[in-house]
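Lay summary. Proteins are chains of building blocks that fold into shapes, and those shapes determine what they do. In this project we predict the shape from the chain. Here is one chain we studied, written as its sequence of building blocks.
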Amino acid sequence: VDGCIHRAAGPLLTDECRTLQNCETGKAKITGGYRLPAKYVIHTVGPIAHGEPSASQAAELRSCYLSSLDLLLEHRLRSAVKTCRGGGSDNRGTGVWVPPHPHPRAEQVPAQVDRLIICVFLEKDESIYMQRLPHYFPVGTYPRGTW
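And here is the predicted shape, written in a compact code that computers can read:
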């Protein structure tokens, strides 16, 4: 996914990313969107788990989502597209982190964000998001492959 985003955005995104230095696992940074149909890109580095993630890897994944959410709110973005981080055996895996009940920071999102699009690659990840997101947002159905 990262390579596709960089190719579509063009070389200026790569140039800006170089100025950011490193992004620690679980943290997020924001750049311009350049040639993308988005003003900004929120970058995050997820944990690499081989098999079932450890407790620290699950915490890093949670931090990826919360750090991204912080930037979304801080920059007052009205819409966002979020790619699922990898894949996983359940919502603790390296792909999906949506808590079963609203997180205090996430409760601010419906009032400030008009549209949140989640891009998933596996049906099991889609199922988790569809079960959990109604706790946070009204869930709409969009045809697959539209964008």
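What the prediction tells us: The beta strands are 28-32, 40-44, 79-83, 115-119.
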